[in-house]
Amino acid sequence: MRYHDCALDKYEVSDRGETISLYLVCACPGKEADKSCIRFSHVALYNFVHTGGATITDIEELPVADLLREIGAQVADWNRWYGVHLWKSGIDDYIALLQEQCCRAWRIESAIGFHRFVIAHAIACTVDRR
């Protein structure tokens, strides 16, 4: 999966929030740009901040529990304000439910601006070298 130092061209949320696609452009001087799409499916929760002009530097998979323990207070606030899909009574129950459903977590970082995470069942990548 190629993403390091690729520019985020755009992202799309589809299927009522269950699919998130990151469209990346990897350009090296003197070569034709590679375009790729990283698609997360069966998304349970995601959050993106500052997407404009982002260059992706890392997509790191980490345990769902580790990610949610870091941001648990924030997710609890989101649940109070907006409602979080699958949330029942607290962060521990939410972690257990996501683990039972075999969800995985990815932290996405960039050189400038874009950062956050996706919790979903699967990730796939396609490359267009036209």
Which helices and strands occur, and which strands form pairs?
Layout: E1 6-14, E2 19-26, E3 34-41, E4 45-49, E5 55-62, H1 64-81, H2 91-100, E6 104-110, E7 115-120, E8 122-128
Antiparallel strand pairs: 1-2, 1-5, 2-3, 3-8, 4-7, 5-6, 6-7
Describe the protein in words.
With 130 residues, this protein is of the alpha+beta class. The chain is built from 2 helices and 8 strands; from the N terminus they run E-E-E-E-E-H-H-E-E-E. The protein has helices at 64-81, 91-100, and strands spanning 6-14, 19-26, 34-41, 45-49, 55-62, 104-110, 115-120, 122-128. Helix 1 crosses helix 2 (91-100).
Largest sheet: 8 strands, antiparallel
Distance between the termini: 17 Å
Note the total helix count.
2
From the alpha carbons, calculate the radius of gyration and give it in angstroms. 16 Å
Structural class: alpha+beta
User: Strand order across the biggest sheet?
Assistant: 4-7-6-5-1-2-3-8
Number of strands: 8
SSE order in H/E notation? Answer: EEEEEHHEEE
pLDDT < 50 stretches: none
Condensed summary:
The chain has helices spanning 64-81, 91-100, and strands spanning 6-14, 19-26, 34-41, 45-49, 55-62, 104-110, 115-120, 122-128. The protein has 130 residues and is α+β, with helices and mostly antiparallel strands.
